[in-house]
Amino acid sequence: MLRVSATYPNLPGSHFDGDDYVGRHAPFARGLLEPLGLRALRITIGTAALDGAPPPYWALSELIFDDRDSFDRAMDICGAALMGDAPRYTNVDPVLQISSLIDA
């Protein structure tokens, strides 16, 4: 399984609307990506660092696909729509990472 992580760093001057991300953007993304091979979408919204300071990341999303080809095809088809929606909930560019999903 392939995991694509999108982390949204909490940078000085940045903002992130977690309610919009979870309530509107995630269903939008799921609707576009599930027919194209999305197996799961997991979202974590940052609340605080361990010492109680603001969270180092606003959010972390994980998109699970069977393989890289499935993900690449999905992004070719709807990646522009997904990234174009980002200004509605944040002014931060996500950091993306491709990983292998391993159950231990």
Give an overview of the whole structure:
With 104 residues, this protein is of the alpha+beta class. It has one domain (2-100): Alpha-Beta Plaits. 33% of the residues lie in helices and 28% in strands. It is built from 2 helices and 4 strands. It has helices at residues 18-33, 68-85; strands at residues 2-9, 40-45, 57-65, 95-100. The protein has a 4-stranded antiparallel β-sheet with strand order 2-3-1-4. Helix 1 crosses helix 2 (68-85). The radius of gyration is 14 Å and the shape is globular. The protein starts with a strand and ends with a strand. The mean pLDDT is 96. GO terms for molecular function: oxidoreductase activity. InterPro entries: Dimeric_a/b-barrel, EthD_dom. It comes from Sphingobium limneticum. This is EthD family reductase.
Tell me the layout of helices and strands.
Blueprint lengths: L1 E8 L8 H16 L6 E6 L11 E9 L2 H18 L9 E6 L4
Antiparallel strand pairs: 1-3, 1-4, 2-3
Give a quick summary of the entry:
Helices cover 33% and strands 28% of the residues. With 104 residues, the protein is α+β, with helices and mostly antiparallel strands.
